[in-house]
Write a structure and sequence with these properties.
single chain; 499 residues; alpha+beta; 5-stranded mixed beta barrel; 15 helices
């Protein structure tokens, strides 16, 4: 029996289709059941009329519970009121398995409860939307580089080398000697660029930071292009074009998913070249400016207004709750959890704003920007920004120095708007052997572990550049998610190693 996917039903209006999937929701009245079926490609309402099905099918509809696996046959009809613009008038239902006591019910649950059951939560609508957007971003990334003649290559996950310092490495025993889970594929990417000119790696990396912030995972995916004969300016332009392509593909191909997440698309539509470019020194002046203080005050007023609106909505819901029908009460209960979560977020930000401004006002040249500093910087602009030429002390040992100011490294970061912070970091690589050897000694790194890396400067050195994009941070930005843990199927954070 040929099976039809839900996402293709709009092309089969007026035809009979057979669907295989799981029951997401069910409601009914006398002689009718409305079953919402999901199959991984989408969801559709299936209408079961007792007069139009046999006794066995009616019984199956009656006993089916949430996540019961079903085979449903019926006629596809156009209905613009429904998700996908269609519904199915059922002619038969077969049950594969009846499910009892499914732990994730239609009511809202706390995030930790859901994360503990991530293996089941992935079946729900919100993760469904996020994972589909993640998939589209991945395909956009590959298409972008492949169309520009880049070769995808793979860097090793096990390495003897620290790329950005040893404090964030996971050390393992490798047949009696020390090895590390890689922080980045960049050093090996440089090797491959010297052989193939333009390459990109796409794989998991690991950071042993003991951080619980919403921007950190211990295992995540990085996309790292490396290009021979590229300087910093060329590198920044490539990063800019890259993000424009990702945002464009997401809004054009993931309209349903972004709408389900409640994502305001205006910010994504504004991701157009050119991005504002600031030197680090210009960014320091801006973050300490009166303009930033005024933006902080405006944000306070905006949050207080949001708080008032939410409190009024909560009071109105409480007033009508007692005389509402059961389905309405469930909706109010779910909304109450959303309101409380948002109010907690508002209160936290209101507490943090004075600290953010104090940190910005007292920011000293030479320090690296923290998360709040990045947020305040991006408030001045309506699209991602590029900050370049950082103090060499806050950048990796392999960064080339600015020939016009030896205090500066030819590095750059791309900061996403709306408080999502750094999503790209990179720069021009040092191409001088003597300089690199000095840097390795200065950072107390084992010189013998880098001899192969030094060979790139001994044999045919050229100017070259590259950057790394964190996939999960990018997905969080595109989806408008508060926490990065929702952007990967099975997040690994400090204290979370299951499921």
């Amino acid at each position: 029996m040929e099976t039809t996917t839900i996402e293709s039903l709009s092309k089969q209006i007026g035809q009979t289709a057979t669907l295989r999937g799981w029951l997401q929701q069910k409601r009914g009245s006398k002689g009718l059941f409305f079953l919402v079926l999901r199959d991984g490609t989408g969801q559709v309402q299936c209408v079961v009329n007792q007069q139009n099905v046999d006794a066995s099918s009616w019984e199956n509809a009656s006993v089916a519970t949430q996540e019961t696996s079903l085979v449903i046959k019926g006629d596809v009809q156009k209905d613009e009121r429904q998700v996908g613009g269609v519904e199915v008038q059922v002619s038969s239902i077969d049950v594969i398995q009846i499910v009892g006591d499914y732990p994730i019910t239609p009511k809202s649950h706390g995030v930790e409860f859901l994360m503990d059951r991530r293996h089941l939560w992935l079946r729900s609508r919100r993760p469904w939307a996020v994972m589909r957007i993640r998939n589209r971003i991945i395909m956009s990334i590959h298409n972008f580089f492949q169309e520009r003649g880049f070769l995808q290559m793979d860097a090793p996950l096990l390495t003897k080398n620290a790329v950005e310092g040893t404090s964030t490495l996971f050390e393992i025993d490798y047949f009696g000697s020390s090895a590390y889970l890689t922080q980045s594929g960049q050093l090996h990417g440089e090797v491959m660029a010297m052989a193939f000119n333009k390459i990109y790696t796409f794989g998991p990396v690991f950071r042993a930071e003991k951080s619980k912030t919403r921007r950190h995972l211990t295992e995540f995916w990085m996309i790292e292009p490396e290009m021979a004969f590229y300087d910093l300016e060329m590198n920044m332009t490539l990063a800019e074009d890259f993000l424009v392509r990702i945002a464009s593909d997401a809004v054009s191909d993931c309209e349903e998913e972004l709408a389900l997440l409640g994502r305001d698309l205006d910010g994504l539509y504004r991701v157009q070249a050119p991005f504002p470019r600031l030197t680090y020194s210009e960014a320091v002046e801006l973050i300490r400016s009166e303009k930033t203080r005024l933006l902080v005050e405006e944000r306070k007023q905006e949050l207080r207004s949001q708080k008032s609106d939410l409190e009024n909505e909560r009071a109105q819901n409480k007033e009508i709750y007692g005389r509402s029908k059961e389905w309405k009460k469930r909706r109010i209960d779910a909304r109450e959890i959303e309101i409380n979560t948002r109010l907690d977020q508002i209160e936290e930000e209101l507490r943090n704003l004075p600290k953010w401004w104090q940190s910005a006002a007292e920011f000293e040249w030479g320090k690296d920007f923290g998360g709040s500093d990045e947020t305040l910087l991006t408030w001045h602009f309506d699209r991602p920004i590029i900050v370049h030429r950082y103090p060499e002390a806050v950048k990796a040992f392999y960064m080339k120095r600015d020939p016009e100011d030896d205090r500066l490294a030819l590095g750059m970061d791309v900061l996403a708007p709306e408080g999502f912070g750094e999503i790209i970091g990179g720069g021009q690589r040092a191409d001088d052997l003597t300089f690199l050897e000095e840097q390795v000694r200065r950072h107390n790194l084992p010189q013998e572990a880098f001899e192969w890396y030094f060979d790139l400067r001994r044999y045919g050195t050229v100017p070259h550049s590259g950057f790394g994009l964190g996939l999960e941070r990018t997905v969080a930005w595109v989806c408008g998610l508060e926490h990065i843990r929702e952007t990967i199927p099975f997040p690994r954070t400090l204290g979370r190693l299951t499921p």
